Amino acid sequence: MKNNKIMEYLRKPITLFKFSCVVSLVTLLLYNIPFFNYVSDNSNESVGGKIFLVVSLVIVMLALNFLTTYLAVFLMRKVGRVLLAILAILNSAAVYFIITYGVMIDGTTIENVFNTRYSEASGFFSWSLWLFIIAFGVLPGLYCILRPIVYESFKKLAICFGSALAIVIAVLLMNISHTLWIGQHDTELGGLLQPWSYIVNSVRVLNSNHEAQLEEIKLPDGEITDDKKTVVVLVIGESARKANFQLYGYQRETNPLLSKQDGLKVYQANSCATYTTAGAKAILEPIDSGDLNELLPNYAFRTGVDVSWRSSNWGEPPIHIDEYLTDSDLAEKYPDADKSYDGILISHLRERIESSTKNKVLIVLHTSTSHGPKYADKYPQEFEIFSPVAKNVEEGEKNLDLLVNAYDNTICYTDFLLDSIVNTLRSMTEWNRAMIYISDHGESLGENNIFMHGLPLKLAPSVQYEIPFLVWISDNFRTYKPDNELPEVLEQHFIFHSVLNLLSIKSPAYKPEFDIFKADNLQ
Q: Which residues of 413-452 are buried (b: 16+ CB within 10 A; e: fewer)?
């Protein structure tokens, strides 16, 4: 009897408005419980504030899901309903892996999905997975396809669209105070929000893979003008702000080792952006451009330089060289090294340089040492010079001194890494040697209640774009230009042209006005 009533209900036509409400509610209840568990567990609000935040997110999610469902079915009819069914199945699979394996559906997860062979992926297939997908994916999907729908007028569409959008905007405006918290947890929240997690991150990964395959705008051919053995180690820092470097006048001893290094040159510099993707690109490109010009490692490699890229970070522009090593690759190559920290990037550095069969060597190290929100996880325990520390930015909001302690410890660790590189190079007397360190952007540590980075450059506080720029070269290698021949504040583009000089690459792309060294060798 009950089954007959259920079937009778399912065969009864439903308006598109009601159908969209049902799908929106089911999407919320079946696929987004982990999302709300995360919000509840990680919000530092009072009970009342936490309830307000959760209710606000529920309203926004219901409105957006309703809006997308209504538009998809109204505009695409049966195709839209099939897409909803497919999303239900994908949602159920995503939630299963989140619950079972504790994963988040972020860019890394999607990248792994795209790159996993069937033989490897088949190990995840189990009866529990299939039962979960049938119960929480296939059955809701069949409802989306089979339930009769009464389509409504364009006028009703306009009313629904405007109402849903107005609700979303109103709720968001009431939650401006939560913008910081959401920004700090955007990766986690985005990785738990269905179906947006895998949709957005799939688009990002596909776009990133597409960009990686794009043909760069090739620079004019260059040539190496001498055969002197030369090595340049370029270190791209992450979220390192000038304000917390002892070398720039900071009162704490955050550079106890570098401050004792003879011959270390310190420049004033600004980043071209406040986020990694644009900052790293600016460091490697010859000019400030929205185009994809040939980048320093690619150009040097094409010209005949032995180039190695070592990275514990992400957000890099396309790198086209033979030796690109992540921290995981380095851990496999050097099992004696600790892959938990950026020290792995300098593992066996001298051995790598001296094993080169070429006279010109460029090593690029892309670090992640000072990236938040968990500064305290970025350095070994012996570098916790300043304590106690905040475990993350959220905890640091309540006590900025603890947050600054953790961040300053990352600078101390950076000091150790750079000092180690200089000492390694200093001992290699048969080579001309240089070490350059520059950060991709700076960081906010609570000034004006702003944290981390990423604000538009025109709005960003100076600590988000004032960056360290440090240079060490061996004796009798190159001559620095006098300070009065350089701008008071250098740009990140100085790296490209200065490194060409160091590697003795003569090129039409070289601009002497963006070089910190005299260029007599390139005349």
A: bbbbbbbebbebbbebeebbbbbbbbbbbbbbbbeeebbb
